[in-house]
Amino acid sequence: MRRFRANSRRTHGATLALFAVTALLLAAAVAHAVPLASPDAAATPAAGAGYAGHQVLRVFLDKHDLASVRSALQGTDIWTDLALTSTYVDVRADAAHAAQLRTQFRTEVLIADVEAAMTASTQPATVSDDGAAGPGRNAVDGEVAADAVSAKFGIGTNYLGYDAMRSMWDAMAAQWPGRVTVAKVGASYENRTIAAVKVTSGKDGGKEGGKKTVVVVSGLHAREWIAPAATINIMSNLASTYGTVPRVTALLDTFDFYFVPIVNVDGYEYSMTKDRLWRKNRQPTSSSCIGIDLNRNFPYKWSPPSSTATPCDATYPGSKAGEAMEITALTNWITTLPNLVAFYDLHAYSQLWMYPFGYACNAQPTDAAALAAVASTAQAAMNATGAPFAVGSICSTIYEAAGSSADWAYAAPRSHSVTRSSGA
Ligand SMILES: *[C@@H]1O[C@H](CO)[C@@H](O)[C@H](O)[C@H]1NC(C)=O
Ligand SMILES: *[C@@H]1O[C@H](CO)[C@@H](O)[C@H](O)[C@H]1NC(C)=O
Ligand SMILES: [Zn+2]
């Protein structure tokens, strides 16, 4: 693993356009195609266990008010965020809760047998299955090469374990020296390396003070496997088409991209080997329940959502801001990056493009208009793919949620306005 050099050039002036902070929830169309691609059953037969009788239901809200819906959903696992404008919410429920929900609401069964769906789904591939060659041997041939890179690594067909992912980006670094470099963000609770992958043209963009920095993170939530896979795809597309696809060339000549494909490395492995639906990290808490929700633990305006939040909840925010080791590592590292102008955090599943703030609905970012403009550009691009996105601030789109990545990244390291999103 090589390190990229810390860029010590100073930011010149506050006039550099800064900060699109966005949580992108990947298209459910994509997630649906492979919703439960699953753990390595051979190594860990228990991975899909514990879900006998569970179903995924679409619960239509009709005329029910949100408070009563929330109360009815207690004890279920909510898959689509319950937004103010939601007409339905998708939840996983055990047999008893599913029966209860059916009496209270109009429902539709999306997955009739969660355990069977897990058992039937495909297993993660390993890079070594595919021989010795690195990614994109004949790359730099434009889109075709990018597709070849993707095909080479099974991107889009299989989910990879963390070690296989690391082999993949190490191979990318070997394939494109100087364009792709790998560094260590920090260590997880179980002492796995959290890696960052920098993709750069190597040029300084002719800008005094250096190029602008874009950070893309994913895998804060363990089970959302499609998000790290999407990040890998974005990285390989940028690296393999620089110099042949004008749009990519312009992007990389203007911005340096830093990707952290999997922040929650322990949780990701746990979801692959032990519990497909694990969300949090694997750090112990004050109770016997394990894990902190990384996307509720960022140290900006952090606060427990309610007095009823317990360490056994899937959205447990920790007992204090930055308690999760992965969050401390990530925030410390991001703070060292020069000229940060944009931050993206990819999640699944839904079609939402959200920006700050989440911690309070009456808190307006200085750049609210610019953030909305970027969101609207992104929305048009996503709509064109046939997966219509809703956009808005986190709080107005979903609900008050403190301690999220977007709030922190917007407000804490540096905060400013927006240029344009890359449509990532
Ligand atoms: C954590 O991993 C690193 C190598 O990645 C190793 O040098 C170190 O000893 C490990 N620490 C613990 C506490 O296991
Ligand atoms: C995208 O689609 C949504 C949902 O159909 C619609 O409300 C919105 O106006 C569209 N926005 C753009 C920019 O195309
Ligand atoms: Zn998520």
From TrEMBL:
Gene3D superfamilies: Zn peptidases. This is Peptidase M14 domain-containing protein. GO terms for molecular function: metallocarboxypeptidase activity; zinc ion binding. Residues 158-424 form the Peptidase M14 domain. Keywords: Carboxypeptidase, Hydrolase, Metal-binding, Metalloprotease, Protease, Signal, Zinc. Belongs to the peptidase M14 family. InterPro entries: CARBOXYPEPT_ZN_1, CARBOXYPEPT_ZN_2, Peptidase_M14. Residues 1-33 form the signal peptide. GO terms for biological process: proteolysis. Its cofactor is Zn(2+). The keyword Hydrolase applies. One of its GO terms (cellular component) is extracellular space.
